[in-house]
């Protein structure tokens, strides 16, 4: 495979923390709605099946509800490039992608495709976009796509899925024992400050600091809120400005927590960004070659030892795709970043994408033609509805019309393993969270008026997801003991959460979600003052609620409306995995 061309080691000046707020002038857009082939068919999707889904969307009139995008996921390409270009699999898509796009557009729908920032797709096909960004983006524009999902397998600059685990050497600094600067040795352990939550001191015969870098956010262990990276910060004093030399005593590795790529900053300026020579093992310490540093201010300065390449390299890869799409004549394409939350994309996704996956796949047991696949309500890993929800529910400050959307993956409604009640709650959760609503089931299993149809066609819930104010719901209460329900990462599902969401017309939506697989026995009540306080300046019509004599209350799942002068709103008794979502309108 030809890997010539620029790469992050030689062209690594795209800084995660030195950008303007946005890299691109994106079109503000609400979360995408549509259908994606992966959960329904895995790599077995075909032209015939895709056309059948288009016909069903039109028959069920799902397009009138906002489901517009038809997205081909992995498995649709010829397994190798032909003359450097992507080609359709001749058996699965004999008419080619442009014909598929024309068919979709002919039904007033929008067409989407898939690729990967690595050398291969997750299926193993050697057609990843890496080093082919210009060619592929030009072809996507020729094929008239409207949506591009880009995955993160076989990625060279991190230990992503199916990539070499040794690629972690790019994602972390080496273990650091000490630095030598201006005639003085400064030990890392005990002298330097360790920022964030990733790095730690390893005590032993030689004390040193390890895990200088950024947590892998793919798995569910770590909270998405707060500092996910660590730096080693030394405070050094100089008498006058000038050039000085720094020597770092380090030990390199090729595994999660210890690498070989070192970044050094003087205060806020990154002045060194290179791979250091391999020391042989993470416990074999050597001195680096002198690193020249220039100081412009006398007195105390900060020397920062760090590695932010896990985020910076990934952002570089996705931004290159976005740039090439624009250069090729971007047709207002929705750019869906799918790196599984690995590099904390909630911190940078808004600079390049329209949405960003927050975790690994919601299910690994996808379907096929005639098999709906299997999903779970809860799981110790990422493959469940509640695993995704538990992260997304505290990520409201990262999303919005001016940013983009947290993406807890496709809807698993209609898959085996989850009940209708779970499906209804799943739909309500995603709508309150402003998640992209991408259906992932074989639509031929649905008829108008049946249980699954009623769930995915709930206009009142969809209106929350697509509300033009574009503010994700905030968790303001949970029955698990905590001090900050809007910020604390909670994985114990034996609880009920209360979410509140301001709406563009001045209404408020309140959601009560029982995550437990047993009934919730207490009626949880929220009063108006509590709701207004929790929403702060985000509420549109605060005075209307404060001065209201009555309230119109609509139960968005039951479809029932009522009026009440009561200034508190309750959950009632919630069945296992059930929810109650109310839309509250203040009346004079």
Question: Which terms summarize this structure?
Answer:
single chain, 588 residues, alpha+beta, TIM Barrel, Jelly Rolls, Immunoglobulin-like, 3 domains, 8-stranded parallel sheet, 6-stranded antiparallel sheet, 28 strands, globular, disordered N terminus
Report the span from N to C terminus.
Answer: 69 Å
Low-confidence stretches: 1-6
The CATH architecture designation of the largest domain is Alpha-Beta Barrel
User: Which superfamily, in CATH terms, is the homologous superfamily of the largest domain?
Assistant: Aldolase class I
Helix content: 10-25%
Strand order of the largest sheet: 19-18-17-4-3-2-1-20
- The 3D shape can be described as globular
Question: What's this, in brief?
Answer:
The protein is an alpha+beta fold and 588 residues long. It is 18% helix and 24% strand.
Q: Would you give an account of this structure?
A:
- By secondary structure, the chain is α+β, with helices and mostly antiparallel strands.
- It folds into three domains: 283 residues, TIM Barrel (Alpha-Beta Barrel), CATH 3.20.20; 135 residues, Jelly Rolls (Sandwich); 114 residues, Sandwich (Immunoglobulin-like).
- It is 18% helix and 24% strand.
- It has eleven helices and 28 strands.
- The strands form six sheets. An eight-stranded parallel β-sheet has the order 19-18-17-4-3-2-1-20. It has a six-stranded antiparallel β-sheet with strand order 21-22-23-28-25-26.
- Strand 25 and strand 26 form a beta hairpin.
- Helix 7 runs parallel beside helix 9.
- The protein is globular, with a radius of gyration of 26 Å.
- The protein starts with 32 loop residues before the first strand and ends with a strand.
- The N terminus is likely disordered.
